[in-house]
UniProtKB/TrEMBL annotation:
Its main location: cytoplasm. Residues 15-432 form the Enolpyruvate transferase domain. Keywords: Amino-acid biosynthesis, Aromatic amino acid biosynthesis, Cytoplasm, Transferase. The lineage of its organism: Bacteria, Pseudomonadati, Pseudomonadota, Betaproteobacteria, Burkholderiales. This is 3-phosphoshikimate 1-carboxyvinyltransferase. It comes from Trinickia violacea. InterPro entries: Enolpyruvate_Tfrase_dom, Enolpyruvate_Tfrase_sf, EPSP_synthase, RNA3'P_cycl/enolpyr_Trfase_a/b. One of its GO terms (cellular component) is cytoplasm. GO terms for molecular function: 3-phosphoshikimate 1-carboxyvinyltransferase activity. Belongs to the EPSP synthase family. 3-phosphoshikimate binds at residues 25, 30, 170-172, 198, 345. Pathway: Metabolic intermediate biosynthesis; chorismate biosynthesis; chorismate from D-erythrose 4-phosphate and phosphoenolpyruvate: step 6/7. PANTHER family: AROM/DEHYDROQUINATE SYNTHASE, PENTAFUNCTIONAL AROM POLYPEPTIDE.
Length: 458
C-alpha cells in the first residue's frame, strides 16, 4: 500500500470576478530561441516563467547564450552561429519543442551533443525528424531505442537542400528544421506530405523568425516551406497571454452564470487555440475584448448550454482536453474531431479524457479515424455529475487542468493526481483559480492497488 498526494477539488456554486492569464509558452519559447540565434542583445517582455520555458533557457545557455531574468522581461545575449557547447548535454525535460529544436540546431555544434528528456519525452515519436535531418546531412545516433530520445548529435552541420516530413505527426519537426535552416549554406526546402495539422504553430515559428530578420517562404497550402540562409538579428518582443492556458479559466467561466474578466490577453493572436473564443461564443456566451487594457470579459447568462455542436480541432490541438471538460456540461450533442495529433502529445489525450470523464459518469465516446483516436462525442443533459472519484492526470498537465475544471460542477469532491505538473505551463494555476473562488486542498490518497484508491487526510 502506498500514499500519493492528490488535490481534492470541491464543488463550486459560482465564480468570483477576475483572474490573470499566464503569458504564452510557445511565444516565449520561440522568442528565447530566436534571440539565442541572434548575435547581440534581445529583450523579451512579459515572458512566461515555467518548467518548459526554463528548459528552453537552459538549453540556450548550454550553447552559450546569456539569459537574464529581469522584472517582467528577459535579456538574452545571443550567440549567433557561434555555439560553444561547454556542457555537451541538453536536458529538454518534458518539452517536445526543446528536444526537437535542439536536435536540429546541434547539427551546427562544434562538438558532439547529447540531448535527452524525461520518461514521457523519451517515449514520444521523433523518427521522422531524425530521418529528415539525416537527408540534409546530419549525423544523429539514438542512444537507447531507435527513433527515440536520447540522442547524440555528432555535428558537422547540414548543407540545406530538400527534406520531407509528414504533416500529421508533429508540427515541431517542421519548426525544428525551420529554426536551424538559416545556419545552412544553401536554402532549405521542407516538403510536407499528407494532411497538415497544427498549422498555427508553423505560422508562429515563421513569425518569430521573420521578426528576427530571417526570410521564410511558405506556399499557400503550407506543403512547401523554404528557409533562406541568413543571420538572426536581435529584437524586442512582447509576449501576450496563452490561449491554451486561458481555456481552463474561460472553460470554468462557461460552467457558471456570471461575468468574469481576464487580464493579459490580446484579441489579435496567431495562436490556433484562440479558437476557444469562437467555441465559447458558439455555445452562446458573450466575449468582449479591451485591447487597450489587455482584458477579456466573459458573460455567461445561462447555467447550461443546449444544442448540437461540432468543432474541428485540427489547428487547435492543445484545447482538445479542455473541450471535453466543457462539452460534458452541454445539453445535447457535443462533438470534436481533428484531434488525432494529440495521441502523440504528453499522454494519449483523447483516450485519457474519455477514460477519466467516463469515471465521472459522462456519456462520452471516442471517435476513431484511420484506426486512431481522432475526437469524441458527448451526450449530456446540462446537469452536473455525482463526482467523488479519484482521477488520474496520466502524467500530463493539460489532462490535470481539464479534469480540474470538470470537477467544479460535480456534486462531490474529486481527487486528482499530478497537480505539480501545472508548473509545465501554468505555474500560478492554483493562485488564479483561488482568485476565482475555487476551493481545493492537498490530500493523501491511499493507493491499495491500481483499481482501488481511497482518499485519506493529508
Ligand atoms: O511548437 C509548439 O510550440 C507546439 C506545437 C504543437 O505540437 P504538435 O504539432 O505536435 O501538435 C503543440 O501541440 C505543442 O503543445 C506546442
Ligand atoms: C505537448 C505540449 O508541449 P510539447 O509538445 O512542447 O511538449 C504541451 O504544451 O502540452
Amino acid at each position: 500500500m502506498s500514499k500519493r498526494k492528490y488535490i481534492q477539488v470541491s464543488p463550486l456554486a459560482g465564480l468570483t470576478d477576475q483572474a490573470a492569464i499566464p503569458s504564452s509558452k510557445p511565444e516565449t519559447q520561440r522568442a528565447i530561441l530566436a534571440a539565442t540565434l541572434a548575435r547581440g542583445r534581445s529583450i523579451i517582455r512579459n515572458d512566461l516563467r515555467c518548467v518548459e520555458t526554463t528548459a528552453m533557457k537552459n538549453a540556450c545557455r548550454a550553447v552559450g547564450a546569456k539569459v537574464t531574468e529581469a522584472d517582467r522581461y528577459l535579456i538574452v545575449d545571443g550567440v549567433g552561429r557561434e555555439f560553444s557547447l561547454g556542457q555537451r548535454m541538453i536536458d529538454a525535460i518534458g518539452s517536445g519543442l526543446v528536444f526537437r529544436v535542439f536536435t536540429a540546431l546541434t547539427c551546427f555544434s562544434p562538438t558532439p551533443a547529447v540531448i535527452t528528456g524525461d520518461a514521457i519525452l523519451r517515449g514520444r515519436v521523433m523518427a521522422p525528424l531524425f530521418e529528415a535531418l539525416s537527408k540534409l546531412g546530419a549525423n544523429i545516433e539514438c542512444i537507447a531505442e531507435n527513433g527515440k530520445a536520447p540522442i547524440v548529435n555528432w555535428g558537422g552541420g547540414f548543407e540545406g537542400g530538400r527534406c520531407d516530413l509528414p504533416g500529421n505527426v508533429s508540427s515541431q519537426f517542421i519548426t525544428a528544421i525551420m529554426f536551424a535552416a538559416p545556419l545552412a549554406k544553401r536554402p532549405t526546402e521542407i516538403h510536407i506530405h499528407g494532411e497538415i495539422l497544427s498549422i498555427s504553430y508553423i505560422r508562429q515559428t515563421a513569425e518569430a523568425m521573420r521578426h528576427a530578420g530571417i526570410e521564410v517562404d511558405i506556399s499557400d497550402d503550407f506543403a512547401t516551406i523554404t528557409v533562406h540562409p541568413g543571420e538572426y538579428q536581435p529584437f524586442e518582443y512582447q509576449v501576450y497571454g496563452d490561449y491554451t492556458s486561458s481555456s481552463y479559466l474561460v472553460g470554468a467561466a462557461a460552467l457558471f452564470k456570471g461575468t468574469t474578466t481576464f487580464s493579459n490577453v490580446s484579441s489579435v493572436s496567431l495562436q490556433g487555440e484562440r479558437a476557444i473564443v469562437d467555441v465559447i461564443r458558439t455555445l452562446g456566451l458573450k466575449i468582449d475584448f479591451d485591447d487597450q487594457k489587455h482584458l477579456m470579459t466573459v458573460v455567461n447568462e445561462k447555467s447550461y448550454f443546449e444544442g448540437d455542436f461540432e468543432f474541428d480541432a485540427s489547428d487547435y490541438p492543445n484545447i482538445v482536453p479542455t473541450l471535453a471538460a466543457i462539452g460534458s456540461f452541454v445539453k445535447g450533442r457535443f462533438r470534436v474531431v481533428g484531434g488525432s495529433i494529440t495521441r502523440l502529445h504528453k499522454s494519449p489525450r483523447i483516450k485519457a479524457m474519455v477514460e477519466e470523464l467516463t469515471k465521472l459518469g459522462v456519456d462520452i465516446k471516442p471517435i476513431f479515424r484511420d484506426g486512431v483516436y481522432d475526437g469524441f462525442e458527448i451526450h449530456g443533459n446540462g446537469e452536473g455529475y455525482a463526482g467523488g472519484q479519484v482521477l488520474s492526470s496520466w502524467g500530463d498537465h493539460r489532462i490535470f487542468m481539464s479534469l480540474f475544471i470538470a470537477s467544479l460542477r460535480c456534486r462531490n469532491p474529486n481527487h486528482l493526481d499530478g497537480y505539480s505538473d501545472v508548473n509545465c505551463s501554468f505555474p500560478d494555476f492554483f493562485e488564479q483559480f483561488s482568485r476565482l473562488g475555487v476551493q481545493f486542498r492537498e490530500v493523501n490518497v491511499l493507493k491499495v492497488d491500481a483499481s482501488q484508491e481511497e482518499p485519506a487526510e493529508a
